[in-house]
Amino acid sequence: MSKSIVVTGGTKGIGKAIIERFAAEGFSIYTCARSQVGLDELRNELENRFPGVSLFTMRADLSQKSDVIAFAEAVKKQAIPDVLVNNTGVFLPGSIHSEPEGNFELLMQTNLYSAYYLTRAFTAEMIARKSGHIFSIGSIAGLTAYANGGSYAISKWAMLGFTKCLRQELKDYQIKVTSVMPGATFTDSWQGADIPESRFMKASDVAEAVWSAYNLSPYSVVEEIVIRPQLGDL
User: Fold this and answer.
1) What are phi and psi of 57, to 5 degrees?
2) To bridge 82 with a disulfide, which of 3, 75, 98, 107 should be the other Cys (CB 3.0-4.6 Å)?
3) Which CDD domains match (predicted)?
4) pTM strictly above 0.85
């Protein structure tokens, strides 16, 4: 039986790159996104590149708790994942004192609450099985304060704290937990920016780091992965 991976927000950027990396290794893929069109395009691409890949997709808005639970229940009818990647996220720039009303709630619900509720949906079974690897896709914005970070940065600092706590809770059950904190990566979040592509990291490099961390022996875990562009932060 093939191993399985759940990746939220899997139609673009880092999430898509992680799916492609694990699909190449024969993993069964479970993913969700808000756009059905994006999910259909992902299916067509994966079926062409990786014939025979097992792919489950579901349209879901993970800023809504009900959608998080519905996605988790749909996955659990088929598998308890060997790997869970909490990747869903949204970026909205702004300062705490002046960003639009509602930014804080939307960013926390999407970037943090989705990971919290989805992780809780699978941990009981992972604990009983005594295996699994949970990755949280954070950001260097969760390590370094900067102007115009606003609620996005707050949500990523909280994501790091969530993941650190999870690591301590699950280590005795042989479940690995890893925080991934990328710097500027060439994804749709930077669309329209007047910055050359060469200044960014590649999403595939983040995916390769996740794959490498997953492949350590049971005796070791990479707790934190910090990846930055070679020329430094933007």
Assistant:
1) -125, 150
2) 3
3) SDR_c
4) yes
Can you give the pLDDT at residue 196? 82
**Residue found by looking up tokens 């592509």 in the block:** 197
Judge whether residue 74 has pLDDT over 70. yes
Residue with the two structure tokens 């869970």: 84
User: What is the distance between the alpha carbons of residues 72 and 88, in angstroms, rounded to a whole number?
Assistant: 14
How far apart CA 33 and CA 49 sit, in angstroms, is 20
Alpha-carbon dihedral 203, 209, 210, 212, rounded to 10 degrees: 140
Decide: 192 and 221 in contact? Cβ < 8 Å.
no
Decide if 68 is inside a domain.
yes
Specify the number of domains making up the chain: 1
Beta bridge partners of 180: 137, 225
Q: Domain of 119?
A: 4-227
